[in-house]
Specification:
The protein folds into four domains: 79 residues, 2-Layer Sandwich (Uridine Diphospho-n-acetylenolpyruvylglucosamine Reductase, domain 2); 119 residues, Uridine Diphospho-n-acetylenolpyruvylglucosamine Reductase, domain 3 (2-Layer Sandwich); 105 residues, 2-Layer Sandwich (Alpha-Beta Plaits); 85 residues, 2-Layer Sandwich (Alpha-Beta Plaits). The chain has 15 helices and 19 strands. The protein is an alpha+beta fold. The two termini are 32 Å apart.
């Protein structure tokens, strides 16, 4: 009888099947896969999952690896199914503003492919040079532009997914006006690969804007910047991004872009796109509004600087050097400033450092804990994360440990308590993956 390794090598070819020391880059939190497989077609992916399922071996989907620290630690000895060879544009209909692509394509490669006819996908998760479309959907990742353009659930109109038994499942369709049946797309998006391996995606596109620029404004402190956010949201301005940065993130962003920070306690980055005349008008109106709201400095950025600034804040604070932990918090937009202040106080009292960057119009705050002058060691990190979670819950929000070393995850829950909804999620998991093959134990409630 063939071993599972031999079976998988027979499906994808020995050159696309890694064992031994070659598995090193795919070790997550000390958990080592038994084999890493790179299917080159959707059918190969289907056969790989079916073979692993028949052998009772867990399957871990792997896109670009940018979000593999998310969730509970994976199982040891699993089969990693990496999708980087599934990176083709299957069909692009410029007249319909739709495209069907394989899920292993990176966001940067997809945008480049769509750029020739002047179109783009309005999804901007961090690290698009590495992040794959399938990975972004599995984690429901998004970025600053979600304020205007929404998240993956608003952009996907069809999926092909490999189920736990290897069967190919299709949901949605290839046209925007598809309303037949249950909307299973939203079930798979954000499920962390626990319900199926996404292998093909059909998305809605937009014409590429003729102009895409930004303005950078610094403030004395976070409350002043948060008050300016409220004025922006109440105005006639239509930014695609409203990013609020605390002092640490302001300094890091200024260093990366060459912008002036002058010891500022906070900053706002507003992005605008569309017709050049409209963008110019909005930038001028934004500059006047921000100066009137108490900004210490406002700079309207040229095209190249704007692109760099928007990319830096998109990736902040994921790119923080040597973080102790990363967290993501969801609160009401009106509470973003207050939560960021409370987080700063908690981290300061613990003797740690903090970088906080918020999609302020959407209520998403992303935190990076860094080593401070006095705060050191596992207990301090765990205690601080617990306090940050408590502050979020007080405001009616939710808290997720987005990344942390295994020792930290063993001391504090990655996810908030799921509540009664977990029973429904468990029933769905049992129906779609009765043997618990797909990414078991990593999602909310140990699903």
């Amino acid at each position: 009888m063939l071993s599972l390794l031999d079976t998988l090598a027979g499906i994808v070819g020995p050159a696309h099947c890694l064992a031994g020391a070659d598995r090193g880059p795919f070790v997550v939190e000390g958990r080592t896969p038994s084999v890493v497989v790179f299917p080159g077609t959707v059918d190969e992916a289907s056969h790989v999952v079916a073979a692993a399922g028949a052998a009772g071996v867990p399957v871990i989907p792997w896109g670009g690896g940018t979000q593999m620290g998310l969730g509970a630690p994976p199982r040891d000895g699993a089969v990693v199914v990496a999708t980087r060879r599934l990176a083709r544009v299957v069909e692009h209909e410029p007249a319909d503003l739709t495209a069907t692509v394989e899920a292993g394509i990176t966001l940067d490669a997809l945008q480049a492919a769509l750029g020739a006819p002047g179109q783009w996908l309005s999804l901007d998760p961090p690290l698009p040079g590495r992040a794959t479309l399938g990975g972004a959907l599995a984690t429901n990742a998004s970025g600053p532009r979600r304020y205007l353009y929404g998240t993956a659930r608003d952009l996907v109109i069809g999926l092909r997914v490999v189920g736990a038994d290897g069967a190919l499942v299709r949901s949605g369709g290839k046209v925007v006006k598809n309303v037949a049946g249950y909307d299973l797309n939203k079930l798979y998006i954000g499920s962390l690969g626990t319900l199926g391996l996404i292998v093909e995606v059909t998305v809605k596109l937009r014409p590429r804007p003729e102009a895409d620029r930004a303005c950078w404004a610094t403030f004395g402190d976070v409350p002043a910047a948060a008050a300016a956010v409220r004025e922006v949201m109440a105005s006639d301005l239509l930014p695609h991004s409203i990013e609020l940065l605390d002092a640490g993130a302001t300094a890091a962003s200024a260093h990366a872009t060459g912008l002036a920070a002058d010891g500022a306690g906070a900053a706002l980055v507003l992005g605008f796109d569309g017709l050049p005349t409209t963008v110019t008008w909005q930038l001028g109106a934004a500059e006047r509004l921000l100066r009137g709201a108490g900004a210490t400095r406002v700079a309207v950025l040229g095209d190249a600087t704007a692109a760099r600034a928007l990319a830096v804040v998109r990736d902040m604070p994921v790119t923080a050097p040597e973080p102790l932990a990363l967290a993501r918090v969801g609160v009401l937009p009106a509470q973003v400033g207050r939560y960021t202040q409370e987080a700063a106080a908690a981290v300061r009292e613990a003797g740690l450092g903090l970088l906080a960057a918020a999609h302020a119009g959407s209520g998403i705050v992303r935190l990076a804990l860094t080593a401070g002058g006095e705060g050191r060691g596992l207990p301090t990190t765990v205690k601080t994360l617990a306090r940050l979670r408590a502050e979020a819950r007080i405001l009616g929000g939710h808290f997720l440990v987005e990344w942390a070393p295994l020792a930290v995850k063993e001391e504090i829950a990655v996810w908030d308590p799921p509540g009664p909804a977990v029973r429904l999620m468990e029933r769905i998991k049992a129906q779609l993956d009765p043997k618990g093959i797909l990414n078991p134990g990593r999602f909310v409630g140990g699903i």
